[in-house]
Amino acid sequence: MKIAVKKIFLFASVFSLSCVLMSVNATAQSSDNSDTANKTNQALSKVQQQIVAQEKSIKQTSNKRSSLENKLRSDDISIAKIVKAMIKTQDDFQDTQQTLKALAQEKTTLTHKKKQQEKVLAQQLRAAYTSGHHDYIKLLLNQQSPASVERTVTYYKYLNDARIKEIDQFQIVLSDLLAVTTQHQEQAKKLNRIQQQQIEQKVVFQHTKQERKNTIRALNKALLGSKQLLAQLVAEEQNLVVALQRIAALAQQSAELVGLKKLKRKLSWPVKGKISHSFGSRKQGYLKWKGILVAAPVGKQVKAIHNGTVLFSDWLKGYGLVTVLDHGAGYMSLYGYNQALLKSVGDRVETGEPIALVGQSGGQSQSGLYFEIRSDGQAVNPKAWFK
């Protein structure tokens, strides 16, 4: 009986101890789970904050890129305007120089003529005084016949008319000389103003070029990642395609424009230079060049490959200042990266006519001409058309 009671007591003690241990373990496990959950929530919150911060940074970068692209467009257009103004100023300078040269020659001629007339008039006046005074006294003393008197009077009238004519001509020469001298002085002042204007234009030009360099540097910094650059190039290419589609839709085909189909191996290059990138070569990632890039110095004339109508003449993202010509029958030629555009939408151009100046607009690091030929909207290899 005592043994049975002891066994029961021992079992009860063991059971009680087990319950206590289980309770302790459960409490400890619950505490561990709570700590883990808190840490997980904290980590999740931190990640979410980082995501929000990254999204904000991406948005700021995107806004900055957009602002820089607008600044680049503004810089390119400003440079184009300055260059065109400098060309006009240079033309005015040359015209004024020619005018000054012509006026100087005319002034020399009139001065020489004035001196000759002064000598003639001086001789006539001396002769008139000497012979005229003496003959008049003789006429009175000799009491010549009325017929002789009439002849003498007629003779003196003729001489007097001749002197008056010489004096009138002399007055005209003096008046012309004064007018030419005044014009010469005015043109000289104009030349000085033009020279000062050229100096100011060059200062503004250099300042704008430096601003453009800074913009490109900042834009490239915002596009450091290759994925970002690839996405940028894809967007630019798509932008060009959309623009060309819109241009093609607006094109008014003329019966005179018969296209380029029959002109393969017959056209001249729009600008002479080394080909930096060929049609179909790798551009970035899976992208390929849809045209050719011809290296050429800034300011060199870009010429139309064939007669056509200007369909587009403006700044285009990624391609800078662009001119597009419609050649008829679905053919178009595109000229990009220009420093300045010389033609406006609707202008008719002839083969070989200057339409732009080589540049590096659109954010290019090197100067050159980007050139495309498109047939029914599809880019084709331009080399097939050149001699």
TrEMBL record:
GO terms for molecular function: metalloendopeptidase activity. It holds the Pfam family Peptidase_M23. The keyword Coiled coil applies. Residues 44-71 form a coiled coil. Keywords: Coiled coil, Signal. Residues 1-28 form the signal peptide. The keyword Cell inner membrane does not apply. InterPro entries: Cell_wall_metabolism_enzyme, Dup_hybrid_motif, M23ase_b-sheet_dom. Residues 289-382 form the M23ase beta-sheet core domain. This is Peptidoglycan DD-metalloendopeptidase family protein.
